[in-house]
């Protein structure tokens, strides 16, 4: 599966998951809303029931008093039954009986109401639990949704980044091949051709000398010497481009110094170099990196900026390696991406490999300034 399709599949999966989770959230919301409305309804019913229970208790108490009174009357009447008529006695008896029956019913209804009240209270408690659990669940689901929407986006960004790195890697390989081609052409057009020329000329010297014309032969030798010198310069330049041996032998500062001297002379441009702080040898990786960084920045200033002055500062202190490369040339817009340009991207990659930072400041007409800082412990 390619990175692109992987990314797409992942997107679809995440989208589906988001849908499912969102539906569940809606459902939970629904459940909690239903529970809430039932809770409200039952609360109202509970209030009513409580009021009724009190009412029943009060009514019952009153009735009880009346029953007590009525029974007292009845016992009085029964004691002195000779004083009362039969009808009167029956009436009191029946009245008492009716009151007693009503009281019993009232007490029965009161007990049913009490039971209902207790049931309602229990049900409300359990509904309260349900509501709280639904709320807890809803907030957990919100967290999941944030994970899926925000955090997964980051995963996608990481995949995107990995894809860019992969493409960049391929471009670097291409660029390396391009570079090999350029070097072989340079050797072919420069030193190789000059050596062929020198060979021809030296044969000419040989002939001239043998024909007796010493002065002409000496003149010709001067020419040959000039050509040897310039071939030597070319070969040295190419070697420098590939990898200056001085870097291993002498270290960073002398190599940059030498590189700058040759480059300034060859391109007829003023380049200032200011090393600050310690001048001890650094770890080889750092020496190579900083030489390449300086080389690329200087080459850019020469190739693109038409600068009249380039300044390079290198500071080595206890914690950092800092380099500033500044030119007074025509500047450029660093936000414009160039397809076939790897110099600046490569510089950035190198600096990041060492956990450093690189700031590029440039604008058309304003010159260019690059500041690089990399953490480095000098022991
Ligand atoms: N110091 C500078 N002054 C003006 N323009 C610059 C400078 N440095 C870079 N540029 C511009 O930025 C572009 C990108 O530079 P970069 O070094 O990345 O690539 P390049 O020099 O074109 O090619 P490469 O370095 O891969 O051989 C250049 O083509 C140039 O237009
Ligand atoms: Mg470049």
TrEMBL record:
Its main location: cytoplasm. Residues 182-378 form the Histidine kinase domain. Keywords: ATP-binding, Coiled coil, Cytoplasm, Hydrolase, Kinase, Nucleotide-binding, Protein phosphatase, Transferase, Two-component regulatory system. Its EC number is 2.7.13.3, 3.1.3.-. It holds the Pfam family HATPase_c. GO terms for cellular component: cytoplasm; membrane. It comes from the Bacteria. Residues 32-59, 103-165 form a coiled coil. The keyword Cytoplasm applies. It is found in: Cytoplasm. GO terms for molecular function: ATP binding; phosphoprotein phosphatase activity; phosphorelay sensor kinase activity; protein dimerization activity. SUPFAM superfamilies: ATPase domain of HSP90 chaperone/DNA topoisomerase II/histidine kinase. It catalyses: ATP + protein L-histidine = ADP + protein N-phospho-L-histidine. Member of the two-component regulatory system DegS/DegU, which plays an important role in the transition growth phase. This is Signal transduction histidine-protein kinase/phosphatase DegS.
């Amino acid at each position: 599966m390619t990175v692109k399709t992987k990314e797409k599949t992942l997107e679809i999966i995440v989208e589906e998951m988001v849908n499912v989770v969102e539906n569940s959230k809606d459902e939970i919301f629904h459940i909690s809303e239903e529970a809430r409305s039932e809770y409200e309804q039952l609360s109202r019913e509970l209030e009513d029931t409580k009021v009724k229970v009190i009412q029943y208790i009060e009514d019952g108490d009153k009735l009880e008093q009346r029953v007590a009174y009525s029974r007292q009357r009845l016992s009085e009447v029964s004691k002195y039954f000779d004083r009362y008529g039969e009808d009167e006695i029956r009436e009191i008896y029946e009245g008492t009986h009716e009151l007693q029956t009503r009281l019993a019913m009232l007490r029965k209804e009161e007990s049913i109401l009490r039971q209902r009240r207790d049931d309602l209270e229990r049900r409300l408690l359990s509904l309260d639990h349900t509501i709280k659990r639904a709320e807890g669940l809803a907030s957990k689901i919100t967290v999941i949704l944030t994970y899926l929407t925000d955090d997964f986006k980051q995963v996608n960004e990481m995949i995107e980044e990995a894809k860019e790195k992969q493409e960049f890697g391929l471009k670097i390989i291409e660029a390396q091949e391009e570079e090999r081609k350029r070097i072989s052409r340079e050797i072919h057009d420069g030193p190789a051709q000059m050596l062929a020329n020198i060979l021809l000329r030296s044969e000419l010297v040989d002939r001239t000398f043998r024909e007796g014309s010493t002065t002409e032969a000496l003149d010709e030798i001067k020419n040959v010497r000039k050509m040897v010198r310039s071939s030597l310069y070319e070969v040295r330049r190419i070697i420098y481009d590939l990898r200056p041996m001085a870097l291993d032998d002498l270290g960073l500062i002398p190599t940059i110094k030498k590189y700058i001297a040759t480059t300034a002379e060859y391109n007829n441009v003023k380049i200032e170099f200011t090393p600050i702080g310690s001048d001890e040898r650094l770890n080889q990786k750092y020496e190579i990196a900083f030489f390449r960084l300086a080389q690329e920045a200087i080459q850019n200033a020469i190739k693109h900026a038409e600068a009249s002055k380039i300044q390079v500062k290198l500071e080595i202190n206890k914690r950092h390696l800092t380099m500033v490369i500044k030119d007074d040339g025509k500047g450029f817009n660093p936000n414009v991406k160039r397809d076939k340009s790897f110099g600046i991207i490569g510089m950035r990659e190198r600096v990041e490999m060492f956990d450093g930072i690189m700031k590029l400041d440039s604008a058309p007409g304003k010159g260019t300034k690059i500041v690089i800082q990399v953490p480095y412990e000098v022991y």
